[in-house]
Write a structure and sequence with these properties.
Radius of gyration: 15 Å
Helix content: 10-25%
Strand order of the largest sheet: 4-3-9-8
Oligomer: single chain
Mean pLDDT: 79
CATH architecture: Beta Complex
Order of helices and strands: HEEEEHEEEEE
Distance between the termini: 19 Å
Length: about 150
């Protein structure tokens, strides 16, 4: 339990650090609510405001900042983009009609120690699959390998 608490504290501290760093260079918003569509910089292919991605595997937290909004602009596409650029393993099941299901990131696979990959956007856990959550630009996305809260 103590190890879990320490991991949660580290994840929160890293998320806060990324937010503060992003804020200082104009990457984050002043609140954790999704920005209105007109605030996102729009390029020919959609929103272009840089984003941040955190991956907490229960032992380490990896941080990627200044990421472009992927096309399509979804949470899963951001993870796939980062996986390709940073060369970490990613296993996704896209066969469900309910949306894509992230099965493994790096060496952590769903079910190990009763933990599963879950994602948060600006500190909130959406109730939709990661391939269906549309990003506006400027968000911080956290993937965490933990016991389900729901």
């Amino acid at each position: 339990m103590r190890k879990y608490f320490i991991n949660v504290v580290i994840a929160v501290a890293c998320a806060l650090a990324v937010f503060l760093i992003g804020f200082s260079v104009g990457l984050a918003r002043s609140s954790f609510t999704a920005p209105p569509a007109q605030e996102a910089a729009l390029g020919p292919d959609g929103p272009t405001t840089a984003m941040a991605l955190l991956i907490n595997d229960g032992k380490y937290v990896k941080s990627y900042t200044g990421l472009p909004v992927p096309q399509p602009p979804t949470v899963l596409a951001l993870l796939e983009y980062s996986s390709e650029r940073q060369s970490f393993f990613l296993d996704v099941d896209k066969s469900s009609s309910m949306g894509a299901f992230v099965k493994q990131i790096g060496d952590k696979a769903n079910g190990q120690q009763s933990r599963y990959w879950q994602y948060y956007v600006n500190g909130s856990q959406p109730l939709v699959a990661s391939d269906r959550y549309i990003l506006q630009g400027g968000e911080t996305v956290l993937w965490t390998f933990s016991k389900s809260e729901r």
